[in-house]
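#lab-general

N.A. 3:47 PM
ok so I finally got the sequence cleaned up, no stray characters, all 95 residues accounted for. can someone with queue access submit it? mine expired

B.Y. 3:52 PM
send it over

N.A. 3:53 PM
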Amino acid sequence: MSSSPYSKTEYQSNGALGMLNIRPVPAFLDDQLYEIEPQYNHRPDLLAYDLYRDNRLWWVFGQRNLNVIEDFVYDIKTGVKIYIPQPDKVKTLME
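B.Y. 4:20 PM
back already:
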């Protein structure tokens, strides 16, 4: 699926996924600086759903904020400030 962080990763001849081909999420001028609220503590999927109407886009936050987030789940915690790409930019990345 285009929303998967693995969508650009090729399959091996035995049907297994090959090495992860990272999907970069670049910085855009209109990215919003956002402080994680308690309801999204360790739940990037809920944040992705509320912002993009697709919980499978949880990985976008980690890819956009590699300088802040190492663990894409446990580093999404109350009080952490991350940059959030606008929905139209994320949609373009999925094409």
